[in-house]
Amino acid sequence: MNTKDIEQLIELLEKSSISEIEVGRWGKKIRVSRQSGNMVVQSSGFEKNDTTLPRPTSAEPVDVPVVEEGAPEQGAAIKSPMVGTFYRAPSPDVDAFVKVGDHVKMGDTLCIIEAMKIMNEVEAEISGVILDIKADNAQPVEYGQTLFLIEP
Q1: Out of 53, 104, 115, 129, which could bridge 124 as a Cys pair, Cβ 3.0 to 4.6 Å?
Q2: Which domains are delineated in the chain?
Q3: Within 13 A of 75's CA, how many CA atoms are on the CB side?
Q4: Alpha-carbon gap, residue 50 to 72, rounded angstroms
Q5: pLDDT tens digits, one per residue of 44-67
Q6: What CA–CA distance (Å, rounded) separates 42 from 40?
Q7: Which residues is 52 bridged to in the sheet?
Q8: What dihedral do alpha carbons 85, 87, 90, 96 form, nearest 10°?
Q9: Which pLDDT does position 8 carry in this prediction?
Q10: CB atoms near residue 24 (< 10 Å)
Q11: What angle do CA 8, 46, 6 make, to 5 degrees?
């Protein structure tokens, strides 16, 4: 994703009534959100020099929130891309998408997060083995909260 793509996301957000948009591809994600009148651009999965973020168009500073965690955990963390309700299965009468010890491939569905009556699938960003499931079924989750730990 290049700077022009990010600028188009910002433009789209400014013209609409939505407050946040996220685009992801091949384990790389860009999230643009409107917070307290400022545009915030966040990225994940990019190398340090892989992309250049656009400069803010207003004179106001852009605050990028930092999610801090306690002691480092073993394995790669798959985090919630949004606020919503965490579901381990597509419906109550079927098995969970994954359980601890399962081998998953990049792109496999791990869970669903319901936000505003829309079911959003969360996919594995890497291939590996599920070490831990950090969220409880049918419970609320926050943006950036660790949902799964995967050993690559």
Answers
A1: 104
A2: 1-66 (no CATH), 76-151 (2.40.50.100)
A3: 22
A4: 25
A5: 655 444 444 444 555 555 454 454
A6: 7
A7: none
A8: 180
A9: 73
A10: 15
A11: 5
* DSSP, res 13: H
Q: pLDDT averaged over the chain?
A: 77
Q: How far apart are CA 43 and CA 18, in angstroms?
A: 19
Q: Is 86 exposed, middle or buried (0-12, 13-18, 19+ CB in 10 A)?
A: buried
Two structure tokens written together for 122: 């969360």
The beta-strand segments (E) located in the chain are 20-25, 28-35, 38-44, 76-79, 84-87, 103-104, 109-115, 118-123, 128-133, 139-141, 146-151
Alpha carbon 13 to chain centroid distance? 18
What tokens appear for 45 in the block? Answer: 């999965």
For the CA atoms of the chain, what is the radius of gyration? 17
67: CB partners within 8 A, 6+ apart? 79, 144
Owner of token pair 């969220």: 135
Which of the 8 DSSP states describes residue 34? E
Q: How far from 15 is each of 11, 89, 90, 147, CA to CA, in Å?
A: 6, 36, 34, 32
